[in-house]
Amino acid sequence: QVQFVESGGGLVHPGGSLRLSCTASGFNLDDGIGWFRQAPGKEREGVSCISINDGIIYYPDFMKGRATISRDNAKNTVNLEMNNLKPEDTAVYYCGKVQLGSYCRKYDAWGQGTQVTVSS
Questions:
Q1: Is 101's pLDDT higher than 90?
Q2: Do residues 83 and 92 touch, judged by C-beta distance below 8 A?
Q3: Hey, which residues does 69 pair with through a beta bridge?
Q4: Which strands, in side-by-side order, build the sheet including 77-82?
């Protein structure tokens, strides 16, 4: 019932920017929607989360100052804009229903992901 569709990934040069989009359906207004990333050989990392009803936002330290998450409730869309991208940001980025209080690290459901590659 809960579905997430990510888009906007691609190849970007170091220092560049990218805007990811997540279209969600089947969630509740008191849910949190977040982004996490997974790179080969690395642990899952929470990227950013936002609560649907009140817009409370969380960023981990490695994303503070480089990311902006926003929501468009009318479109059921959550966007993630990332700036000053680094090669270590290369990963598959997933959007999903985040467990509140998990610092964007635990999810109940997510989409297929979108690949972000940061390379010269």
A1: no
A2: no
A3: 80
A4: 3-7, 18-25, 77-82, 67-72
pLDDT higher than 90, residue 108: yes
pLDDT at 80: 98
**Token pair 């690290």: residue:** 105
SS3 call for 3: strand
Question: Nearest CA to 50 among 25, 70, 21, 20?
Answer: 70
Our measurement of the distance from residue 42's CA atom to the centroid of its chain's CA atoms, rounded to an integer in Å, reads 17
Report how far residue 102's alpha carbon sits from residue 116's, in angstroms, rounded to the nearest whole number: 24
Give residue for tokens 């926003």: 70
Residue 104 exposure: Cα atoms within 13 Å on the Cβ side: 26
Strands (E), the chain: 3-7, 10-12, 18-25, 32-38, 45-51, 57-58, 67-72, 77-82, 91-98, 107-110, 114-118
Residue-level pLDDT at 65: 94
Distance of CA 39 to the CA centre of its chain: 14
What is the identity of the amino acid at 6?
A: E
Q: Residue 21: what are its φ and ψ, rounded to 5°?
A: -130, 145
